[in-house]
Amino acid sequence: AKRQEFVVSRGHVLELLRVDAETGRVVTVTSTDVFGVIRSLVRFRIHGQEIDHVVVGSDAGKLVVLRYSDREDGGGGEFAVVVDETYGKSGCRRVVPGQFVAADPRGRAVMVAGLEKQKFVYLLDRADEKVTVGSPLEAHKSGVIVFDVVGVDVGFDHPVFAAIELDYVDADSDPSGAAAAAATKQLVHYELDLGVNTVTRKWSRETDRGANALLQVPGGGAGATADGPGGVLVLCESWVLFESPKQATLRTPLPRRAGVPDERGLLITAATVFRRKAGVFFFLLLSELGDLYKATLEYDAATGVVSDLVVQYLD
Question: pTM (2 decimals)?
Answer without folding.
Answer: 0.93
